[in-house]
Every structure is written in C-alpha cells, then in structure tokens.
Write a structure and sequence with these properties.
The protein is α/β, with parallel strands linked by helices and 343 residues long. The protein has 2 domains: 2-129, Ribose 5-phosphate Isomerase B, Chain: A (3-Layer(aba) Sandwich); 154-320, Hypothetical protein TT1679 (Rossmann fold), CATH 3.40.50. Helices cover 37% and strands 18% of the residues. The strands form 2 sheets. Strands 6, 7, 8, 9, 10, 11, 12 and 13 form an 8-stranded mixed β-sheet that branches. Strand 12 and strand 13 (313-320) form a beta hairpin. The radius of gyration is 23 Å and the shape is elongated. The chain starts with a strand and ends with a helix.
Amino acid sequence: MKIALAADHGGYALKEEVKQHLLNKGFSVEDFGCYSTESVDYPDYAIPAAKAITAGQADLGIFVCGTGIGMSIAANKQPGIRAALVHDVFTAKATREHNDSNVLCMGGRIIGPSLALTIVDTWLESEFSGGRHLRRIHKLETPANAPEQAKYTLAELTQQADDLVTEAVMKGRVAPGSLFVVGCSTSEIRGKRIGSDSNADTAAAVYEGLTRAAKRLELQLAFQGCEHINRSIVVQKSTMEQYRLQQVSVVPVAHAGGAMASHAFRTMPDAVVVSSVEHQAHAGIDIGNTFIGMHLRPVAVPLRLTHKTIGEATVQAAYTRPPLVGGKRAAYSLEQEQEVNRE
C-alpha cells in the first residue's frame, strides 16, 4: 500500500514522525512536502497529494498542519477525496468503517507523536463496513463534487453490477458454489480508455453490487488484475485452498493491478492473490474488454444478456459446459440415448 504524505510548517515535525513509522512498518510512502519548518501555504501541499490519490498514484493519504483543519478543507475540495480530521482513536476507527475516508488529517500542534501514531495504526487497520454506509456515501455525489464526466451515480453502478451477475447466473444456469471470475476496467465504466482513469469510488460501487449478488447466489468470486501483475487473481484464501491455486506475492494497486483488484484485495475477507485460477472458473463477466477467457473452463459459451453495459463499459459474459466427446453415434443426454439405440 502506498501512502501520500503532506504537511505545512505546522505539521512538518509530526509528518516526519509518521513517515518514519510507516516506513518501519513496510508501507510505501510518497512525501509531497513540506520539507522544513519554514512558513508555507498548506494548499500547495494538500492539493497535489490529494490529486495523486484520486489518480491512483497512492492508495491513501495522511495530511498534517497545525490544527489539521486547513489540510482537511483543502483535501476535500478535490473530487473523490473523503478527508477526516481526527484527534482520537475512536473517530480514527469510525471514519474508516463508516465514511470510507481516504485521507487522515491531524494537527501537529494539537496532539503528540505517541497518540498520532496510534491513530495512524488504527485508521490503517480499520476497514470500510459498506452496506448502509455505502448508501450514505453515494448521497454525497452531487454535481459539485462528482467525478468528472460521471454519467451514472454510484448507486446506479451498484445496481447494474447486481443485475448483471444475477442475469448471467440465471441464463447460464450457474450452480451455487461455482467459481465466478470478474474482469473490470473502472476507466471504461467512466467512459475513458482502459487503464487511463482508474477510480476507487467506481470500483467500490461496482464491487458492492457484485458481492451482493454473489452472496445471494452463493458464488465464489475471483477478481482479475491487469497485465502489470500478469493478470493475477484476487480470491479468498478458502477458494485458493479448495482449488489448489498458487499464491503469489504482490499487492494490487490502482496503477498495477487496477482499481477493482486493489479494492477487492483490501475488502474481501481473507483475500490472497494467486497467479491464475488455472482454467477452473465456471463462469464470468468481463466489464470493459479486459479478457477473462484464460481463466474459464473449457468449453466457454457466450451469454447474450439484456444488461449489456455497466456505466459506459460494454459487458461480455460466459458460462462453461463440459466438452462434448465422441462421434456421430455419441449421445449427450438420456433423451438422446433412445434415438442412438434406434439407429
């Protein structure tokens, strides 16, 4: 996970404490400044760091100024940023679980290093609860702060994803317990070229719909990463063990793996990354021409769906059936057996 750091002169000392703490814990850090206690203007550091997060160049941000107020105001001016001003452990946990905050703001003149580092650890270890909280986040999406060129609300994307999986399972007669692979380009959903506009909020909304349908239909989901991680797959550990898949060491991020794989890895319980599902998926959907065919069992059969898009992305779906073996005299159902015997 990559963390973007930003501070003004009032937060410089605490930022340096946080940076060393994160590096000691193995996090990747990009420091946007400032780099001394010389007086500076907080927007000059908050805005570039916030834009790096929305562009997928960093996963989360920690911003510090004298009180944390200026940094939080500046960060929240950027579309897609949910910055929370936190000075205690309870709100550090709550703002991740309930608000899915992606920027933590603190005041270097308000709290000391010991409490600040505890807040940082709590915030990073907490996970978004989804459900009703996602519905509330959807309602924050207004014309003033909606992502550029977003033609669908996040709530609509969630419903489209749920409808798509449901239709694919029904038409493909996909059995409960089946392995269902998902390829997804959030850039294509947003009407952009694949890989050019990866977006965490879009991923979260679509993921919510996919997992909601999967839970109802008893599917095991597998999320394909992009070519920059060799199209590795995010699955639950139980799925890896059931199908005897090979685990690999990589953390999907927006610019290497894609927003959906990145979100799945951080949200799915007991998530691991495997090199492939080794042609064992029973069915799947491809959102935005990401090519999932390599993961499907032979023989893959295309599905003709009434739900043809999610957002602006075209959707393809397929189920699989066992290969038909034999020749002219072979039967493929009990009904056909009688016809063959008569010949």
